Amino acid sequence: MLVLAVESSCDDSAAALMDGPVVLAERSRSQEEHAGHGGVVPEIASRLHLDVLPGIATAVLEEAGVDLHEVDAFAATAGPGLAGSLLVGLSWTKAAAMACRKPFLGINHLAAHLCIHYGGERAVSFPAIALLASGGHTCIFLMRSWTRIEMLGGTRDDAAGEAFDKVAKMMGLGFPGGAELDALAAQGDPDAVRLTMPLPDPATPEFSFSGLKTAVRLLLEKGTDHRDLAASFNSSVAGLLAAKTAFQARAHCARSVVAAGGVSANSALRRALEKAFPGPRPELFLPDMPMATDNAVMVGRAAASVLDSAPLAQSGYSCNAFARWDGEVLETLVV
Ligand code: KG4
Ligand code: ZN
User: Do 146 and 305 form a contact (C-beta atoms < 8 A)?
Assistant: First the structure.
């Protein structure tokens, strides 16, 4: 079954042509235009999606040698994310689905991040504990199946990626600064600086990252070496995320642990998770590097996970965009 999947929730315009969970072609364009603004400017983001998405989708179809009318179903991120950005991808994809008289699936972006692990060479077994750490979210989920996903806890304020970006900005690095801060950390000594983490108890599946900014600012004012500070920040956040994930994995007798979202590209987090879960049970699933951050393959795999269990599932053409998700049960398909 051929699905054309589109992602435009923030500052990445992406499309993928999928045959079930298998990628036939995929392309994405990251909006570097925001770098000088120190954050994503919503209107610039929407207008860039409007400019580039049709070209990206066309290029994906051409690369796969598939005509738009041969696509069996269309999927796009419906939320959470920036409303204007979401509306562009959602409208384009719904229009394509309507023109071809094919089903449309609106996909929850958070579930899509987790679904990057759907249909891979190794199968995720359930129950699974999922750590989703991105620029907008930091949550721990209990996955009973691909379609039954419950939130165990999230962040009370900033997301982990947001904390990375803000600290990176204070150090004069680019935006988004998570990957740059991670690289700088490799040159420093994580034990040279002590950072106290809020909500440190591994048994508490909640996070708070907003206070770290002040701690980092004070250390920078004291002249602390940027490399050591980056190393300490990297390993403290990674250690906390891994410890909380490990606690929930034990508490729920998890058979798998999955990590997803932009921060799951972080080298210290990947090392901490590999150390916490040396295998074989629970089995650890880390996303391939380019698939940790926003992409359309995860939207396509989320659609595949829905269609494999309910082949007639669809959202309907009136599916709307939503900026926030505050639920406790994560539904992959938005109806
Ligand atoms: O999943 P994502 O692409 O977008 C959201 O859904 O938010 O995540 C982007 C976030 C940014 O905050 C970025 O700085 C962070 O992921 N990130 C990293 C790394 N690579 C990307 N944070 C820490 N270490 C990295 N290597
Ligand atoms: Zn994301």
Answer: yes
Contact between 28 and 295 under an 8 Å Cβ cutoff? The reply is yes
Give residue 69 CA to ligand 2 midpoint distance, Å.
Answer: 29
- CA 174: distance to chain centroid? 20
How many C-beta neighbours within 10 Å does residue 184 have?
21
Atom 3 of ligand 1, nearest CA residue: 293
11 vs 42: CA distance, rounded Å:
9
* Ligand 2 geometric centre to CA of 224 (Å): 32
**Alpha-carbon torsion angle 207, 213, 219, 221, nearest 10:** -170
Residues of the chain falling short of pLDDT 70: none
97-144 tens-digit pLDDT: 999 999 999 999 999 999 999 999 999 999 999 999 999 999 999 999
Residue nearest to atom 14 of ligand 1 (CA): 178
Bridge pairing between strands 128-133 and 73-79: unpaired
pLDDT for position 83: 98
Q: How far is the CA of 293 from the centre of ligand 2 (A)?
A: 6
Please check whether residue 290 is in contact with residue 16, taking contact to mean a CB–CB distance below 8 angstroms: no
d(Cα 90, Cα 321) in Å, to the nearest integer? 7
Ligand found nearest the CA of 289 = 1
Q: How far is the CA of 322 from the centre of ligand 2 (A)?
A: 14
Atom of ligand 1 nearest to the CA of 160: 12
pTM score: 0.97
What count of other Cβ atoms lies within 10 Å of the Cβ of residue 156? 13
pLDDT at res. 37: 87
Binding pocket residue ranges, ligand 1, CB within 6 Å:
10, 134-136, 161, 164-165, 176-179, 182, 261-263, 265-266, 293-294
